[in-house]
Automatic annotation (TrEMBL):
PAC domain: residues covered: 58-110
Organism phylogeny: Bacteria, Bacillati, Bacillota, Bacilli, Bacillales
Name this protein carries in UniProt: EAL domain-containing protein
GGDEF domain mapped to chain residues: 142-275
Domain EAL, first and last residues per copy: 284-538
Pfam families named in the record: EAL, GGDEF, PAS_9
């Protein structure tokens, strides 16, 4: 619609009439207030008009009302039109009805926040709720206890009595634990036979210990499932906020380590994190020393996992994955040294060493006649948040005479949501420089349409936890289908990672997924083997059918 300088409507198009139900004759001379739903308050509109007056444009989501009274969401852009004297003569508004996108977003939110089996919150919902609780607690100086609960020898029961009995047992375990949990506490299924519990605002550590004993006692009673009398025990690890960590990830990680200590010391008991910390203190000291030395001497290697276009059946890129073998520690899992590097801040120099090695490999590929393989690199939150992040990575890329167009930066959902305004600017600048941008592990964090629409993204990577079960579980299929639909409406390509079977490939193709990555095609391989893989793929391209 177009209005005059007083916001009186002068012109609308047929799409306006279709969406709102009003004809041009009904709205001409009236202001857009005729569409207001009442869902936005005065401060919302004040900020909107402040933005328009200062920048000449506003864009965002808003709820409006049709002629029949139905309230609907729309994506709206308003721009002011000025004459040669700089005076506003008109306002120009463009909007689209995003009701269907909101339905998809709501479905994804519901599916991604609830455990499909036990119908309690899942790990992703737990992470977000715990972080929200922690943010409030930093002001109130509250103390919380996090319990990581693992069932002992559950795998043996599953294999002996079957998955259906195992699933029924997990439901009953969840019910028993939930019967002991107060409403103010957070309870979730972490995955498999593991559960998480956050005790909100405890006064003493012994409160966490008391509940751990109650859970152990409750689970020691027999379960009766499909004619089977089943006995099971649990091992419980406990961490305490704030002494063991000030964010959900660290607290859960430390409770997990304490759980393993309890399991190794006989099972059917609980342990606090500090017991495990004492046991591991020597390895942690050695790990830090060796990691610092490895970074200085650039002792890491890079493996690459191919990404395949479903439609063209071509290699359209690779993901770079770091590997490390220490003289004193042997082969160290990325699952051990990456979190420790993040915790100590060593992730910044480590990431730059990885980027250097990737650039060196790209140069080597170019010398051997292969110059068109884009490489995606995982970017840690701490590294990305540095003020000079763009300058530092650009310096490395230019130093090795590499092109930003050949690099894709993978960020997690939680990284881009920390400070969205400054992150939008940073991402836009990176994209203008030629870097491609993707969101990694999509579906495990916020999964919000509103931020996807704002960020200049090239790709979404669906987390492997969804892909792994899409052929067996309808809810996982629904999540993946919704993500692909939503991304495509925003002109974002979708990558499914963790693809391991032909059936998964077939289903992803039916869902119109763009790119697949996983062990079905190749494990992560060294640079030299990658060149052989690419060559063989091209040789057999005509006869290959990935389905």
């Amino acid at each position: 619609m177009i209005t005059d300088e007083n916001m009186c409507i002068s012109l609308v198009n047929s799409a306006f009439e279709t969406v709102t139900g009003y004809s041009l004759d009904e709205v001409r001379g009236k202001t857009p207030r005729i569409l207001q739903s009442g869902k936005q308050n005065a401060s919302f509109y004040k900020k909107m008009w402040d933005d328009i007056e200062s920048t000449g444009i506003w864009r965002g989501e808003i709820w409006n009302k049709r002629k029949n009274g139905e309230v609907y969401p729309e994506l709206l852009s308003i721009a002011s039109i000025v004459n040669s004297s700089g005076e506003t003569t008109n306002y120009f508004g463009v909007f689209s009805d995003i009701s269907s996108e909101k339905v998809v977003e709501k479905e994804i939110e519901e599916l991604t926040n609830t455990d499909y089996l036990t119908n309690i919150p899942n790990r992703y919902s737990f992470y977000d709720s715990l972080n929200d609780l922690i943010n409030l607690s930093k002001q109130n100086h509250d103390k919380h206890g996090i319990l990581f609960i693992d069932l002992d020898r559950f795998k043996q029961i599953n294999e002996t009595l079957g998955n259906e009995v195992g699933d029924s047992l997990l439901i009953e375990v969840a019910n028993r634990i939930q019967s002991l949990v107060k409403q103010k506490h957070l309870f979730a299924r972490y995955g498999g036979d593991e559960f998480l519990l956050a005790l909100n605002n405890i006064l003493y550590q012994k409160e966490a210990a008391k509940l751990a004993r109650e859970i152990t006692k409750k689970l020691n009673k027999p379960f009766y499932i499909e004619g089977n009398e089943i006995y099971i025990t649990s091992s419980i690890g406990i961490s305490i906020f704030p002494q063991d960590g000030i964010d959900a990830e660290k607290l859960i990680h430390k409770a997990d380590k304490a759980m393993y200590f309890a399991k190794q010391n006989g099972r059917n008991q609980y342990a606090f994190y500090f017991d495990e910390l004492k046991r591991d203190s020597k390895r942690l000291l050695l790990l830090e020393a060796e990691l610092r030395k490895a970074i200085q001497q650039k002792e890491f290697s890079i493996h690459y996992q191919p990404k395949i276009s479903i439609e063209k059946q071509e290699i359209i890129g690779v993901e770079a994955l770091v590997r490390w073998t220490s003289d004193k520690l042997g082969t160290v899992s990325p699952g051990e040294f990456i979190p420790y590097a993040e915790e100590t801040g060593l992730i910044i120099p480590l990431s730059e060493v990885i980027l250097e090695k990737v650039c060196m490999d790209i140069i080597e590929w170019r010398m051997k006649g292969i110059s068109d393989i884009p490489v995606s690199i995982n970017i840690a939150a701490l590294h990305f948040q540095q003020d000079d992040f763009i300058e530092r990575i650009n310096t490395i890329v230019m130093q090795y005479n590499c092109s930003p167009q050949q690099l894709e930066l993978e960020l997690t959902e939680r990284t881009v949501m920390k400070d969205s305004e400054s992150i939008v600017k940073k991402l836009i600048k990176l994209k203008h420089m030629g870097f491609k941008i993707s969101i990694d592990d999509f579906g495990t964090g916020y999964s919000s349409l509103s931020y996807l629409n704002r960020f200049p993204l090239n790709y979404l990577k669906i987390d492997s936890s969804f892909v792994k079960q899409i052929t067996a579980l309808k809810d996982k299929q629904a999540i993946v289908d919704c993500i692909i639909l939503m991304a495509h409406r925003l002109h974002i390509k979708v990558v499914a990672e963790g693809v391991e079977t032909k059936d998964q490939v077939k289903l992803l193709k039916e869902m119109d997924c763009d790119i697949i990555q996983g062990y079905y095609f190749s494990k992560p391989i060294p640079s030299t083997e990658l060149l052989d893989f690419v060559e063989l793929w091209e040789i057999h391209k005509q006869e290959r059918n990935i389905l």
